[in-house]
Design a protein that fits this description.
The complex is a heterotrimer of chains A (about 800), B (about 170) and C (about 290). Chain B is an alpha+beta fold and about 170 residues long. Helices cover about 30% and strands about 15% of the residues of chain B. Chain B has a five-stranded mixed sheet with strand order 2-1-5-3-4, with helices on one face. The longest helix of chain C is centred in the C-terminal third of the chain and has 23 residues. The chains are: A alpha+beta (about 800), B alpha+beta (about 170), C alpha+beta (about 290). At the A-C interface, α4 and α19 of A face α10 of C.
Chain lengths: ~800, ~170, ~290
């Protein structure tokens, strides 16, 4: 059912309610918190990628003025806390016991009376290491003579391979490839998606406070999923869950970095319980980049079987996934490779087969993060790159090849060869809007002219399909907890409302957008509806915000809770107006009698009546809660086109234009949506050309601070252009799909495709990210095109 | 380690303190004075979240010691609003949706304030150069440019009495 | 993130700073802009016992031209060099350089003096100063001495020929002759980064349009700032044409010693020395002709 656009409500560029505190510097981030008697924690970290720990000497550290305690792995082991479960059914060390597995791994936790004393204490802890051979190449980790990196689980995992996962129809896929080898075309492409890091401007941290008198543990935490974290703390630490309160205050960006539980949090909790004082732990940027949850690191081999005319038939993918020392990737438990098997993308493949082999190396743990929708960034990158390769090999225009192979609008709901049911889409329409907006045909003509003069320009397309809104409880759980979400609304007697939701903003604007959802359903002003979240004592249980799930899941719960409120208000209206419910009509903000529009009650009058003149057969009050188990995921999509010019003297790539056409279904707040897209595009540009975390042979990290991990500034970032199509989700109460990660999913390959397109006439088929000037220049030199 | 008595004017108020020589200015402002609007985002002077105004100059307060601020005039984000009236930059950031998580915002606004002091009518390119020492992960900068242009327009309207970066505030 | 301990003293005059240097020797470091030094202290990569803050010394941040020289006070901030009308008009190579140092906020405090005295081969000004043939004025307990820039940088990184009890007080750049010009080009991964490669070129032409002065300096392609002497020498006496520019650029590349790192492979950097030197020389020529 289409939602009406209200004067206030859906589709309005309502200015954000949460801005008021941020523009005054009155945000409440974790590090802003100062409690009486608060202590500070700092972590001692390993300089070795792989080593035995022979001894941890804390004696000098304890002499440092201000240092109160030093917690070691042995201390935690005594409490059964030296290891903790990960979200991927692995275990990870909280503090290393007998060995370290990656540079910067946590070894000890110093507790002191000041930040500075804690740092001095950490510098004074003396650890005796015996280095072991280091494995940083995931291919080498699979060799039979590779050192076993995880002897702690050798009984259940005797090699460095964590899992083999596969999906799809192998036999039928192979048959199609055989056919294509004979009568069609087979295209192969290897792509590497490098390790990158979400790097929100605020690093991770917490303040943990245990009250001995009440037995209550309160943790203010940079958490994208406070309820899930509370339950995990209860299970892992054996603390009673009703006496744990997690509070996510204002969070300075998440992007998936703030989903895992980090050793620093656990140590701070242990420290507060032992000392009885609040303990603050805030990591610095180097710690953040070097040890917290990274994203990507997928080595992908893909093949397409197609007809000679370019009609695609089958897709075959093999991936080697490097998870670092512990598989601490955050994704629904039944999907160890996340939603990677969306990799058939926007195209009508009849058959597909995907395999993922995951492996340990001596690197920081993780894998799923950085605005990826659970590996959709990797999936979308691979299909958009190999489709371009197919176009290149066939001598076909990449836009034409896509149009030819798009899933047709009438095919929705569409069941993909890998068993996803796409809810709605119109891929042709989005690509047409993008091509018109960028002036595609003129650009192709310009490219021909420029090539004749030896100038290099390229046009790259990315027509991605996203998959978000995890998800139906039957298939989607985090650590066993089904991935529903929730909203509770309470309308006060004087017609103002307070709503609490189970998701957690880190900048997405929920205080405004969720108020708009309710405002649309109840005909109220968003100003009269305050939205709170993040406090597990008050907010209804939810699974948090990541993978663009807030609008699809909690947004649905919010609309449905608002409708429950409206339904009860209708009953009260019928009572007050002395008619049957069937005789009432609704207009925004008001019920009125059919045929007598002057006889009506506003929602405010009905709220007041709920407390003062409630029908005797109803409970007084006006509130409702909804826990929403989505029937399906949602599938936002889009077409992005990027235009680049290449400097033949330096290999530098200049992005001349970038147009993003997005379809996220019903738009709640176009201003917020556009802002999300600008930010996501910038985080798509970043891996395409700038960001990369690499390791040398000794396991030392490169890219472990902001000098070397290259976050784009205002100068590298183009002036993003945006447009939209609107194809609502048929199964979502307001037709909305979510949008936050579409741009990070869609953008990198648009840029890579553009650079490859600029060089395609020279025979170039692929360049791995990040596209650095020297990678391009090497190609130019090889082709005799390097100039001044 | 030496200890020093410092007297610093911040947003018009004089703060006196005894500080260790190595105490970073950003830590003194945040932890000792409880002015937590200025944020810390990195450890290599790269991100600009800690930007404040010192004697009229945009300054990364993580790369200055508190003791160096003795006798100086400082303005932080808390000094932008005067007499319950938002500064045009604050208005601009709100109107143009130039913030999402808000963490880079105080530093971004202070850099922009100093920029508008020396260049009251900057082009988009000049704004992008001016804010290139401040990183944002959420907004992609497009709306930040618009916010600064909004403020530039408003400040050039005769009715506005600008708060300058050199003042500590009234 | 958190520095180690040190003592902090303020110098209120050059004489006082020199006396403190004399007293503490190697244990002391001068704190000017601090944009490089404080970063090192925070990572505990430097551990001086004493920091001598010279920011309170009055009259050390000046920029003025005498008949034969541009005088830059040690405390002159990069931002001043970036914005001064005098520099844009008469010394555009210095403007080219200053505007590429770090980012605009860092430039408010970073000093030109510090950029040179810190002697980081990745810093931008050394190459430019080598190209223009600058002089460094040092003051010690015995008084002042003038050090030609060619003799200022020692043979290893972060080392100068300043004595432990000397302080850099002024940089002198020769005033431009008629028909002279220079340019600095910096290739960086992103704004705020150190150079992948930087190249500074300065040329002077006689009445017949022949090169009578040439200086080429290179950034971040060796363990010290590099003066490409053979490259510059190859231009002397000739009318500067594209062939000559390319020849000089090839010699400049041969004079560089880049290493492969996260800013690119050595081979690329060497090629970029060539490319940037060509671009710098072309622009220097255009400026010498009054075209730009």
């Amino acid at each position: 059912m289409a939602a009406e656009v209200q004067h206030h409500g859906l589709g309005e560029a309502y200015k954000r309610k949460e801005d008021a505190r941020f523009i005054r510097g009155q945000g409440h981030y974790v590090d802003d918190l100062n409690l009486p008697g608060m202590l500070y924690g700092d972590i001692v970290r390993s300089p070795y990628a792989h080593a035995l720990i022979k001894n941890v000497d804390i004696s000098e550290a304890l002499k440092v003025p201000g240092v109160l305690a030093v917690i070691t792995g042995k201390d935690l082991d005594a409490a059964g806390l030296a290891w903790m479960p990960t979200l991927s059914a692995d275990t990870e060390a909280v503090l290393a016991l007998d060995r370290v597995h990656y540079v910067m791994q946590e070894v000890a936790f110093v507790v002191a009376t000041s930040r500075y004393a804690a740092a001095d204490g950490a510098a004074a802890v003396d650890v005796d290491y015996e280095p072991l051979p280091v494995v940083v190449d995931p291919h080498k980790a699979l060799l039979p003579d590779a050192p076993l990196l995880r002897p702690d689980k050798k009984d259940r995992q005797p090699t460095n391979q964590i899992y083999h996962w596969e999906t799809g129809d192998k036999a039928d896929t192979e048959a199609m490839f055989a056919e294509a080898e004979a009568n069609g075309i087979v295209v192969k492409q290897d792509v590497y998606v490098p390790r990158i890091h979400p790097a929100p401007i605020e690093t991770c941290g917490c303040v943990a406070q245990f009250d001995k008198a009440t037995g209550k543990l309160t943790v203010w935490m940079t958490s994208q999923a406070p309820h899930a974290h509370r339950t995990l703390f209860a299970i892992v630490a054996g603390l009673p869950e009703h006496r744990i309160r997690i509070i996510s205050p204002d969070i300075g960006g998440g992007f998936g970095n703030k989903v895992p539980i980090y050793p620093g949090y656990v140590c701070a909790v242990v420290a507060t319980i032992t000392t009885g004082k609040p303990v603050k732990w805030i990591e610095d940027r180097t710690e953040n980049l070097s040890s917290t949850g990274f994203g990507r690191d997928y080595h992908i081999h893909a093949e397409i079987a197609a007809d000679k005319d370019g009609t695609v038939r089958a897709l075959k993918v093999h991936t080697l996934a490097d998870h670092g020392a512990f598989d601490a990737a955050a994704q629904p438990t039944k999907f160890p490779a996340g939603l990677f098997h969306i990799c058939t993308g926007s195209y009508d493949f009849q058959k597909a087969f995907v395999e993922v082999d995951a492996v340990h190396t001596n690197k920081a743990p993780g894998g799923i993060a950085y605005r990826c929708s659970f590996r959709v960034t990797e999936a979308s990158y691979l299909i958009e790159r190999i489709m371009d390769t197919l176009a290149h090999d066939l001598g076909k225009d990449p836009a034409e090849l896509r149009m030819q192979n798009f899933i047709k609008p009438e095919a929705f709901p569409y069941r993909s060869a890998l068993n996803w049911t796409y809810d709605s889409g119109n891929y042709e329409a989005a690509l047409k809007v993008a091509m018109k907006g960028i002036g595609y045909d003129e650009l192709r003509r310009e490219q021909i002219e420029k090539r004749a003069r030896g100038e290099l320009m390229g046009i790259g397309i990315s027509s991605f399909t996203e998959i978000v809104g995890a998800g139906p409880g039957k298939h989607f759980d985090i650590a066993g907890i089904q991935m529903f979400d929730s909203c509770e609304i309470r309308v006060h007697p004087t017609g103002k409302a307070l709503a609490r939701i189970g998701v957690q903003t880190q900048g997405q604007g929920h205080e405004t957008t969720f108020a708009q959802i309710i405002a649309a359903e109840l005909g109220m002003s968003p100003d009269d509806i305050d939205v709170e979240h993040g406090d597990t004592d008050t907010a209804p249980y939810g699974l948090g915000t990541y993978a663009s799930r807030s609008t699809p899941v909690a947004g649905a719960a919010t609309a449905l809770a608002a409708r429950k409120v409206r339904d009860k208000a209708k009953k009260i209206a019928a009572y007050l107006l002395e008619v049957g419910e069937e005789d009432l009509e609704w207009e925004p903000g008001r019920f009125y009698v059919k045929g007598s529009p002057a006889k009506g009650k506003t929602i405010q009058e009905l709220a007041f009546a709920a407390y003062t003149n409630c029908p005797p057969y109803l409970e007084p009050g006006l509130e409702a809660v909804n826990y929403y188990d989505p029937p399906n995921l949602t599938y936002p999509f889009g077409s992005y086109i990027c235009v680049v010019d290449i400097d033949r003297g330096t290999g530098a790539v200049h992005i001349r234009r970038f147009l993003a056409v997005d379809d996220c279904g019903t738009i709640i707040n176009p201003m917020v949506v556009e802002g999300q897209i600008h930010g996501g595009l910038t985080q798509g540009l970043a891996p395409a050309m700038f960001e990369e975390i690499t390791y040398d042979e000794e396991g030392n990290i490169h890219g472990g601070n902001f000098q070397d991990y290259l976050i784009p500034t205002s100068m590298e970032t183009p002036h993003w252009e945006t447009d939209r199509t609107v194809t609502p989700s048929p199964h979502h109460p307001i037709g909305a799909k979510g949008v936050g990660e579409s741009p990070t999913v869609g953008a990198p390959q648009a840029i890579v495709n553009a650079v490859v397109d600029a060089l395609a006439h020279l025979g170039v088929r692929h360049i791995d990210m990040p596209i650095t000037p020297w990678k391009v220049w090497n190609i130019l030199k090889e082709k005799g095109l390097a100039a001044d | 380690m030496s200890k020093h008595h410092i007297s610093v004017t911040i947003n018009g108020t004089v703060y006196e303190s005894d500080v260790d020589s190595r105490t970073l200015l950003v830590h003194w402002i945040r932890d000792d004075l409880r002015l937590t609007g200025t944020h810390i985002g990195c450890d290599t002077t790269s991100c600009g979240a800690c930007t404040i105004i010192v004697d009229g100059k945009a300054t990364k307060s993580c790369t200055m010691f508190a003791v160096q601020a003795d006798g100086r005039q400082i303005m932080t984000v808390e000094g932008l609003e005067q007499n319950d009236k938002l500064h045009p930059l604050q208005e601009g950031f709100h109107e143009e949706h130039a913030l999402q998580c808000g963490f880079c915002t105080p530093g971004m606004m202070m850099t922009s304030l100093a920029l508008l002091q020396s260049n009251p009518n900057p082009t988009e390119e000049e704004i992008r150069v001016g804010i290139s020492g401040n990183l944002c992960r959420c907004t992609g900068y497009v709306n930040i440019v618009k916010a600064v242009q909004f403020a530039a327009n408003k400040l050039q309207t005769p009715a506005e009495v600008p708060v300058t970066a050199g003042q500590g505030g009234e | 993130m958190i520095p180690g301990s040190f003592d902090y003293v303020t110098a209120n005059s050059v004489a006082e700073a020199v006396a403190l240097l004399e007293q503490h020797g190697d244990e002391a470091k001068i704190l000017a802009g601090g944009q490089s030094l404080i970063s090192l202290l925070r990572f505990r990569l430097a551990g001086p016992s004493v920091l001598i803050d010279i920011n309170r010394i009055p009259d050390l941040d000046y920029l003025y031209e005498s008949s034969s020289m541009l005088h830059i006070g040690a405390l002159t901030r990069e931002a001043e060099l970036d914005s001064a009308a005098l520099i844009k008009a008469r010394y555009p190579i210095l403007h080219d350089t200053a505007r590429m140092v770090a980012d605009p906020v860092v430039r408010n405090w970073a000093t030109v003096g510090g950029n040179i005295a810190h002697a980081d081969p990745a810093n931008d000004h050394p190459a430019t100063m080598l190209a223009v043939g600058a002089q460094v004025v040092a003051r010690g307990p015995g008084g002042e001495r003038v050090i030609p820039i060619d003799e200022f940088f020692a043979d290893s990184s972060f080392e100068t020929t300043l004595r432990p009890n000397e302080m850099l007080v002024e940089i002198r750049v020769p005033a431009p002759e008629m028909h002279s010009g220079g340019a600095y080009f910096k290739l960086e991964r992103k704004v705020g980064d150190y150079a992948i490669v930087g190249a500074a070129a300065y040329i002077g032409l006689d009445a017949d349009d022949r090169v009578n002065y040439a200086g080429i300096g290179l950034t971040n392609v060796g363990s010290t700032p590099i003066k490409a002497r053979d490259a510059a020498q190859s231009l002397i006496g000739n009318v500067l044409d594209d062939a000559g520019i390319h020849h000089a650029a090839a010699l400049a590349a041969a004079a560089s010693h880049p290493t492969s790192d996260t800013r690119g492979p050595a081979e690329y950097k060497r090629a970029m020395v060539r490319t940037l030197t060509v671009r710098a020389l072309r622009k220097a020529l255009a400026r010498a002709h009054g075209e730009v």
